[in-house]
Amino acid sequence: MRSDTTPAGDRDLTAIWDATRSRVTSLVTEHALDTDGAAGGDAAVATVPGATVRDVVGHLIGVATKAAEAPDALRGEAITPPSTGAAPRGAAVADLLAAWTSAADQLSALVASDSMPAVVLITDAVMCEHDLRATFDVPGCRDDAAVKVALDELAGRFSDRVAAAGLPPLRVTVEQWGTIIGSGPATSCLVADRFEFVRGMAGRRSAAEIGRWNWGTDPAPYLPVIAEVALPEQEVRERDPRIPAHMRDREFVL
User: Fold this and answer.
1) Torsion 186-191-192-193 (CA) sign
2) How many distinct structural domains can be found in the chain?
3) Which SUPFAM superfamilies has this protein been placed in (predicted)?
4) Does some domain include residue 235?
């Protein structure tokens, strides 16, 4: 368990879930529906090597289906990026979107009844949302409540892994939020951008990128446990819409 220095307040998880799944549906509808090849379902996902847009939607369907069948089991499952083959090759995007919409509709009632871990669903869905945003080059919603839910959930998991590995605790500060990762008093610190920190913990940043954050200690021991999956070898570029075009350096160019 982590120890937040600025605990989150109450959140309407049902509203956050519904808004997140609605944005995912809109992204797929506007950028992948009724198109072929690289412009649609076959488009390579910029943040998940080897995966396609179809795989992202297939992944979401799979998570939603498991959640509906066994809500309690979802709590202990790793939050992982979409994998290659998560959806049948050549599957119609419209059919996948319909299946996702149906599964998400069923989950809204379960989220409202508090009978399932909504934070896991939201975390997974908002990470997939930003995978799609990077792929379609429509960045945005980085300060959305769903990203803050993901921050809480992923930081707790990171903290557990740090404690299990016997690593020194780490004080983390990201914008207006802070926590102690690991167990015990922290003498070292990390300062990072909130969105970058969340994406790193979700396995969407390389070790080199994470190592460039503002660490007050050697980051190397923490890199194997910062995410539940192996970090990508190549750097992951997600354009920050807050940076004016004339001020972008290589970090903000796709």
Assistant:
1) positive
2) 2
3) DinB/YfiT-like putative metalloenzymes
4) yes
